[in-house]
Specification:
It is built from 6 helices and 11 strands. It has 257 residues and is an alpha+beta fold. The chain is elongated, with a radius of gyration of 21 Å.
């Protein structure tokens, strides 16, 4: 009896990744750097030896300039309606057009309307909370390992490093009135060099208290996490208090009271 040879074809996702890379005319190293991964990781993906993680698929979707973005985002567990829900006045047939060049109707007062072109980036909303000073946040020092709750869309110029940008929620009021309990902050996990963070709002992690949101300040050679709310105390970073900055806050949004 003749036996069928074992299947030798690569998975559809592996072929899709290679097709995307070749359409962008990038080698594996440059392609990987845009996504925050190594050339070796890209090679494993294209060979079908290892599937990208969810945040890798979201980055792939952001790089795609046609309807293939939906394929990658759905591989990450996100559905097209999640994106459409957050975009203003977007026709359903947009899912078949170029995602990097949406045509959006600008709303406003008065009878006059403007039609502008805007580039959007899909951002994962992580199922993660950064807490106020004195409270315990989620114990996660690598945001890339966090589960994804949903997805948001933001203008491209709000996200200087899309492959490293994600969103998470804030719990507590140590950054009030600027950032309040329940707000969503967009963060860049590539901006973590302490020498260039003075005055910026960051997400920091400590093994005993998890993730905390605070303003990072440098005084001489001392690094301090300073809350906006004066009712909360500052925390000095030292050998005895080994905090790790995991991301810089880019912007934030919240519901009106």
């Amino acid at each position: 009896m003749l036996r069928k040879p074992p299947p030798s074809g690569k998975p559809a996702w592996a072929k899709a990744i290679r097709t995307l890379r070749e359409s962008l005319q990038l080698n594996q190293a440059d392609f990987g750097s845009r996504l925050g991964f190594s050339a070796m990781a890209v090679s494993r993906w294209e060979r079908g030896a290892q599937e990208p993680p969810s945040h890798g698929y979201i980055g792939l979707g952001n790089l795609a300039r046609d309807s293939s973005c939906w394929y990658f985002w759905e591989r990450a567990g996100l559905r097209s309606e999640h994106v459409l829900r957050v975009l203003p006045t977007l026709e359903r047939n947009t899912r078949y057009s170029k995602l990097q060049n949406f045509e959006i109707v600008s709303a406003g007062t008065g009878p006059k309307q403007y039609h502008d072109k805007i580039e959007l980036v899909a951002l994962p909303l992580l199922k993660v909370q950064a807490a106020s000073h004195g409270e315990k946040g989620d114990d996660l020092h690598l945001l890339s390992d966090a589960p994804i709750e949903s997805m948001m869309a933001a203008p491209k110029d709000w996200c200087p490093n899309p492959a490293y940008t994600s969103c998470l929620r804030v719990r507590g009021n140590s950054m009030a009135p600027m950032i309040q309990d329940g707000f969503v902050v967009a963060v860049d996990s590539s901006q973590i060099d302490m020498n260039s963070l003075d005055g910026k709002i960051v997400i920091a992690w400590h093994k005993d208290v998890g993730l905390t949101i605070s303003r990072f300040r440098l005084y001489d050679h001392t690094a301090v996490l300073v809350p906006e709310n004066s009712e909360y105390g500052a925390v000095a970073i030292s050998a005895k208090q080994p905090w790790k900055v995991v991301a810089t806050v880019l912007w934030w949004i919240g519901k009106a009271p």
